[in-house]
Amino acid sequence: MNDAGVPVLKEAAWRAVGVPRAHESAALHVLGQATYTDDIPELQGTVHGALGLSGKAHARIVSTDFARVRAAAGVLAVYAVGDIPGLNDCGPIIHDDPVFADGVVMYVGQPIFIVVAETHDQARRAARLADIVYEELPAILTPQAAKAAQSYVLPPMRLARGEFRQAFEQAPHKVKGELYVGGQEHFYLEGQIAYAVPKEDKGMLVLCSTQHPSEMQHVVAHALGLHSHNIVVECRRMGGGFGGKESQSALWCAAAAIAAFKLKRPVKLRADRDDDMLVTGKRHCFHYDYEVGYDGDGRIAAARVDMVTRAGYSADLSGPVATRAVCHFDNTYYLSDVEILAACGKTNTQSNTAFRGFGGPQGAIAIEYVIDEIARNLGRDPLDIRRLNFYGGEGRNVTPYGQVVIDNVIGALVAELEASSDYRARREDVAAFNRASPVLRKGLALTPVKFGIAFNVTHLNQAGALVHVYVDGSILVNHGGTEMGQGINTKVMQVVAHELGVDMAHVRATATDTSKVANTSATAASTGADLNGKAAQDAARQIRERLAAYAVKLYGGDVEAVRFAADMVFVNGHEVRFPELVQKAYLARVQLWSDGYYATPGLHWDPVTMSGNPFSYFVYGAAVSEVVVDTLTGEFKLLRADVLYDAGRSLNPAIDIGQVEGAFIQGMGWMTTEELWWNEGGKLMTHAPSTYKIPGVSDCPDDFRVALYNNSNATDSIHRSKAVGEPPLLLPFSVFFAIRDAVSSVGGHKVNPPLNAPATSEEILNAIAAVEAAVAQGA
Ligand code: MTE
Ligand code: HPA
Ligand code: MOS
């Protein structure tokens, strides 16, 4: 018992990390009390913006007439390209991304102006009244068309090892083909929003929903012709980001700030869902041409893939996305002689951007598709072909880009899942079911994942934090990461609590704020908890060391032996309550706050040769999915999914399992029902939930078994944990290949169904028809 009558845990057993804890805002979320940007009480004088959008995919703007917009009810001002005080640019890397169209429009939905009115509704109505005369120009809408026209936002990339062509020619068996995998709308529940509040002496406060406050600060400073120190960007939380708020929150911040600066009034710009979907970029769709040679056992001897993606009208993050696709084509497989090409097609569509996995899923799906074909060609279970090609064994542990895989656990992980999911017996059951069921067909698939952790742009792998211990012993932590529901604050609070030996309940996390921690990276690449956790640990450790030194001054003993655990400090036989020691330390003038910093060691990357050590470590996982497909309607249902995921020594197993479940369902939506469709004029017609089908509760499998693989990170990550944000998005490849397996059963598994993603009902029916036609022709 401590002096407050609370039982004290044994210090050795005490841990604040590695234990399941509820999300720091869970209660606020369910009570509707968590403040999102639009919930912040509006200041007096606040006005509202709406964007006026291009109606053409590619056109010269002959003239703009905003007279009817200005005359509309409640309208205060209209601002277009000529009204921007500074730079007309919100591009994150290459400066090819105008805030407002300048002379030409490059996609349907491109912002041309902002109208500011007394109310949100008035602004939206007025935005439709602009009279714009266009002179239409030829538009490119698909990645294949972009490739044919050699229309790229950046030079194409190539990574090669060994002698592909020679190895391919010599291989006894070959597969060649093409595949298309569609893009994906982020569908964050909270749309894009920025609330810009002018401050004294050219100051600007921007409250917004963003994964990247520092980038928003730069963009706003440039747009206003000011310095970074004039701008403060704050984000307490997002209602989801999923990569869609890594760079693409910039437009909304810039437009709101320009209007607020000109009008000298607070301006809120909140996108309506349709506008959000029409204006912002999405996951990149990919088209692949592949050629793979293999031997009679199914071992890959030579692999070549030529990928082209729909980057959209500007570069945005397409370069790093394509790079990650190139670096994930290998997935869990050793490829000796390989050539990987990737090009970012410049198209007259939204500028595609980061989306959970960031090109990694798009790279890996291609090799999985090929392996699935090899297995069918050889009449073998795809799991056997996968296993045969896994990294591991003599000379088979170097990736095509030259990084040595030192932490490979895929073989053991898959073996564990194969057993726990009862894979072999269920394979038999599925075959038996299909023999007796002509219309409903079942399918089963196990797919593995290996995912590299770190920003593939090396300098982004850094983070900072500030930890304050107040005189009453309560603790406040601020770090450069942003909370989007993934639980970064919870994890960082746990790390700080662990370092200072207190319960997490004594720690509070504040909003991300560019005036607290400077020059932060986006919370992205699944590195948020890794980087900011280490930075916060560094800060908390400095405070603990000062407190320990002071405790030894008071009570004697060895500073190394001082222990902080269970809200107590154990020093030289004394047990002191943490707040008591803090109070004494304050009176003795010990600094009770600290900054902390972390930069991931050991990373390097040469973009010219596409080689180096881009990743700090790899995360592994695998999933088994069983589906039933209705061969008359093309509908499917996921019956059961078993997932095993390597979160290292998980910081918080409850949050990590939630991340795996969420990513799995989100990835399943991408692979199956979420279809983006543009009409001939280049207008995205699927710009609302009525036409764009994300998974619902009823699409989740009734039997969903998610477990964490018992492992410890071989790399010195935060408490030896591993990242969890993005990699599980690749696990529902198993759903896609289970569907392909079910379709394949229609042709007695003799024909490779030509199935593209998303495997919508229409796509499934087309694949069934193709299989039946091939069988009829005697395949
Ligand atoms: N989980 C929730 N609930 N909401 C999100 O927006 N974004 C994902 C993932 N999990 C996201 C999420 C993406 S794209 C990334 S990169 C990581 O969270 C970022 O957070 P982390 O690095 O702190 O894991
Ligand atoms: N992931 C997310 N964002 C990024 C990355 C990445 O790998 N590289 C640069 N920005
Ligand atoms: Mo995640 S796509 O890196 O924001």
Automatic annotation (TrEMBL):
Pfam families: Ald_Xan_dh_C (PF01315), MoCoBD_1 (PF02738), MoCoBD_2 (PF20256). The gene is xdhB. This is Xanthine dehydrogenase molybdopterin binding subunit. Residues 31-138 form the Aldehyde oxidase/xanthine dehydrogenase a/b hammerhead domain. The keyword Cell membrane does not apply. Its cofactor is Mo-molybdopterin cytosine dinucleotide; FAD; [2Fe-2S] cluster; Mo-molybdopterin. It comes from Massilia eurypsychrophila. Keywords: 2Fe-2S, Iron, Iron-sulfur, Metal-binding, Oxidoreductase. InterPro entries: Ald_Oxase/Xan_DH_a/b, Ald_Oxase/Xan_DH_a/b_sf, Ald_Oxase/xanthine_DH-like, AldOxase/xan_DH_MoCoBD1, AldOxase/xan_DH_MoCoBD2, AldOxase/xan_DH_Mopterin-bd_sf, Xanthine_DH_Mopterin-bd_su. The keyword Metal-binding applies. SMART domains: Ald_Xan_dh_C. GO terms for molecular function: 2 iron, 2 sulfur cluster binding; iron ion binding; molybdenum ion binding; oxidoreductase activity. SUPFAM superfamilies: CO dehydrogenase molybdoprotein N-domain-like, Molybdenum cofactor-binding domain. Belongs to the xanthine dehydrogenase family.
